């Protein structure tokens, strides 16, 4: 039976917001029909104007808030440019944490139907601003000068700003200085429509523990004009810089990095630590962007493994081996598996860098490699999984259930797939005991959870 649509374009309606979308838009339900409204917060009532109506949902514009959420914060218009990528900028940090906590609790009990699980209060940051150790900003041109910033949502129009409330100050400063140096020397900005011009993006990465800075200049052209002068001026202006890299991306694409990378000055990597494990970070390496909360998350994961030094551990979806290397110090042996071969190369290099020898890394799909390990007689006492948003493959969950490790530690960036997968494990011999939400990405909609699941 098809549902009648209760609203039409240009209607003015009074609504209550009941939820937020993944993009941070308020969700109002009109006779069950969802309407997405940027700026609306759960618990608020408001008048909205319907802008667009589709078969199953609509879009609206906030006209007037009639009852405000206690968590609403007003960002002065002149400061809005600092909040690029911050879907929750209009919510206090306390409100953000409350929202994420509710999201995790409701999802796990509604979808996963979990009972008897201890969901701890979310661990937020003391300083929820300036936490990101990496930025890659698009470069444009205005009034004959280079500008950098972030794209206006759903466009490629650059909002001109040198400040971001989520980038580390060292990153904001570095990008501003590099942009000004290139601008002074007359380097042109890439023009996406015409596919002309030179400088496409500036990337900066910063090692929080080491203070080492990497600058990557991404150009359309093979040649970087005024290369020597640019390098000299960056080195003089940024004493922490340890690596300056040129990357060439000649393609018409939204992908930021091209295939060709050349070191212009200094090292090809910078270093940083998570706990006492040292990591080499190249322009392409995946490395957690919030180092403070990564440590919190991994400490919790380590505690949930209950390692004594005698266990065989499998780290599925291991990336560059961050969790594997962290756990290897307390385990007999760790096997890591990851589908991206570059990441496995980084993982092996990082093991060598730290003199960690009780780890073995394999390229492949976790759902294929781990069943093969089982056939070869590798039995894990503990399995750690840290899958992408879509969660664990069903074949992997089946193998876990068959292998019967004493503990499973599940690190998840998506409560919905976490709930689904915990439900599958619970339908068998496993019980979820603890779930710890961690706020890795303040000001955004994302929430990370680490869960401890034990064999009954
Ligand atoms: C959320 S990341 C976790 C990375 C790592 N544990 C860390 O903390 O740095 C998920 C990883 O799973 C990898 N991946 C995706 N599908 C996979 C599969 N079927 N088998 C193995 N790895 C996979 C991705 O390449 C990515 O590195």
Question: What does this molecule look like?
Answer:
This protein is an alpha/beta fold. The chain has 3 domains: 12-67, Nucleic acid-binding proteins (OB fold (Dihydrolipoamide Acetyltransferase, E2P)), CATH 2.40.50.140; 98-126 and 290-455, Rossmann fold, CATH 3.40.50.150; 134-274, Beta Barrel (OB fold (Dihydrolipoamide Acetyltransferase, E2P)). Helix content is 25%, strand content 31%. It contains 9 helices and 22 strands. The chain has helices spanning 93-110, 169-184, 227-237, 291-305, 322-328, 341-353, 366-375, 394-403, 415-426, and strands at residues 12-20, 26-30, 33-37, 45-53, 58-67, 118-119, 134-142, 145-151, 158-160, 199-206, 213-219, 241-248, 260-266, 270-274, 277-281, 312-316, 333-338, 359-363, 382-385, 407-412, 430-438, 448-455. The strands form 4 sheets. Strands 6-21-22-20-19-16-17-18 form an 8-stranded mixed β-sheet, with helices on both faces. α1 (93-110) runs parallel beside α9 (415-426). The longest helix is centred in the N-terminal third of the chain and has 18 residues, at 93-110. It is globular and about 65 Å long. The protein binds S-adenosylmethionine (SAM).
Helix-strand blueprint:
Layout: E1 12-20, E2 26-30, E3 33-37, E4 45-53, E5 58-67, H1 93-110, E6 118-119, E7 134-142, E8 145-151, E9 158-160, H2 169-184, E10 199-206, E11 213-219, H3 227-237, E12 241-248, E13 260-266, E14 270-274, E15 277-281, H4 291-305, E16 312-316, H5 322-328, E17 333-338, H6 341-353, E18 359-363, H7 366-375, E19 382-385, H8 394-403, E20 407-412, H9 415-426, E21 430-438, E22 448-455
Parallel strand pairs: 3-5, 6-21, 11-12, 16-17, 16-19, 17-18, 19-20
Antiparallel strand pairs: 1-2, 1-4, 2-3, 4-5, 7-8, 7-10, 8-9, 10-11, 12-13, 14-15, 20-22, 21-22
Helix pairs in contact: 1-9, 2-3, 7-8
Bound molecules: S-adenosylmethionine (SAM).
């Amino acid at each position: 039976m098809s549902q009648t649509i209760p609203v039409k374009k240009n209607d003015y309606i009074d609504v209550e917001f009941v939820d937020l979308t993944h993009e941070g838009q308020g969700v109002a339900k009109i006779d069950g029909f969802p309407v997405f409204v940027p700026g609306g917060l759960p618990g608020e009532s408001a008048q909205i104007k319907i802008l667009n109506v589709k078969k199953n949902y609509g879009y609206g514009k906030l006209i007037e808030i009639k009852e405000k959420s206690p968590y609403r914060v007003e960002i002065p218009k002149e400061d809005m440019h600092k909040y690029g990528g911050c879907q929750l900028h209009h919510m206090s940090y306390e409100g953000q944490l409350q929202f994420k906590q509710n999201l995790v609790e409701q999802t796990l009990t509604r979808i996963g139907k979990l009972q008897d699980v201890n969901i701890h209060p979310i661990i937020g940051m003391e300083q929820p601003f300036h936490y990101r150790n990496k930025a890659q900003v698009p470069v444009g041109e205005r009034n004959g000068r280079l500008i950098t910033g972030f794209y206006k949502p759903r466009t490629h129009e650059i909002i001109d700003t040198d400040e971001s409330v989520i980038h580390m100050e060292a990153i904001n400063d570095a990008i501003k200085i590099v942009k000004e140096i290139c601008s002074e020397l007359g380097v042109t900005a890439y023009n996406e429509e015409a596919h002309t011009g030179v400088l496409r993006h500036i990337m900066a990465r910063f090692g929080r523990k080491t203070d080492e800075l990497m600058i990557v200049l991404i150009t359309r052209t093979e040649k970087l004009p005024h290369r020597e002068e640019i390098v000299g001026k960056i080195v003089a202006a940024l004493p922490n810089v340890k690596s300056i890299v040129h990357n060439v991306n000649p393609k018409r694409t939204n992908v930021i990095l091209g295939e060709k990378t050349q070191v212009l000055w200094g090292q090809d990597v910078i270093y940083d630590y998570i706990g006492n494990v040292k990591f080499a970070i190249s322009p392409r390496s995946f490395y957690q962007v919030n180092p403070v909360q990564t440590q919190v998350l991994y400490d919790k994961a380590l505690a949930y493994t209950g390692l004594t030094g005698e266990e065989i551990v499998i780290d599925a979806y291991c990336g560059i081996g961050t969790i594997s290397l962290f756990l290897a110090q307390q385990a007999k042996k760790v096997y890591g598996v990851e589908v991206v071969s570059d990441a496995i190369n980084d993982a092996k290099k990082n093991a060598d860098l730290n003199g960690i020898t009780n780890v073995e890394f394999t390229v492949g799909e976790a759902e294929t490699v781990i069943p093969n390990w089982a056939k070869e007689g590798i039995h894990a006492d503990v399995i750690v999984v840290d899958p992408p948003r879509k969660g664990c493959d069903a074949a992997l969950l089946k193998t876990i259930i068959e292998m019967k490790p004493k503990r499973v530690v599940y690190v998840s960036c998506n409560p919905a797939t976490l709930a689904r997968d915990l439900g599958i494990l619970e339908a068998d011999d496993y019980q979820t005991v603890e779930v710890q939400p961690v706020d890795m990405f303040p000001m955004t909609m994302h929430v990370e959870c680490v869960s401890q699941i034990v064999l009954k």
